[in-house]
Amino acid sequence: MRLPDKFINTIKGVHQDAGEQWLANFDELIWYCEWKWSLKVMEPFPLSFNFAAPVILQDGRQAVLKLCVPGKEFITEKEALIAYRGSGIAELMDYDSDRGIMLLERLNPGETLKTIHNDEEATRIAAGVMKKLHKPASTSHFGVFPTIQQWSQGLLNLRQRFDGGTGPLPERLVRKAELYFPELISTMKDPHLLHGDLHHENILSAEREPWLAIDPKGLIGEREYEVISFLLNNLPDSDKSRITERRVDIFANELQLRKDRILSWAFCHSILSAWWCVEDNAGSADSSLEMAMIFDNLRSRSVTTNG
Which residues pair with 103 in a beta bridge? Predict the structure, then answer.
């Protein structure tokens, strides 16, 4: 199977030697899947960080084959799918942890939420999916899934890399995130198992339910954190602040969330996302920094209005 050069370069860049080895054994991996599940692999979906393709099983049923470089992210995704048991999300049909293989429910027609052009409608659909997904974190989830606190420690790497400075990121914004994160974490209540990456392209139209999620990261935190990925995605070039505020209002009302905490978490996460761009050399951090300032301005306005 011919893999796109961009996908090959991504696998090598992210996974280094493990990625090189995985690519070298890729044809054998496909053969193993065909043999184990008696399936036929079709043309893959557009590829980013993992291989995913529709497959046809021996009995004629459709499914999706997802192949990942084995590691921590594969484990947390698999465990999240097991925990959700198909509630609000594509079902995990089978897996092979050692080889990084998942066989998943095929969602048809499989259009992404980006096809809903009315932004308020799309936001309400996403809120409905979140209602089905969210479940209180159990003791068994801790140690399996990362927590928001662990994610926030990424900013320590920023300081270490730039000898106590913030490199290309504004010192003022980083310092504010460093203040907000501990405060939010210390006042967090009712931790839940979150999807962790629930944006427009990870919500697909389906038959079993009108809309279902795919590709969970698996994260433990409060529910206000879940909406951030959606807020950061599929925004127009102009009027971002107004649309973002409307999305926040809808999520707060539909899910009974606190608007001030959504905006504070979103600001912190945007700074963290900007650092990830720098750390992984994965595109520009400008968009994340722009959204951080929007979230911070909306938060200040909200505090002033409510105060």
Answer: 65, 94
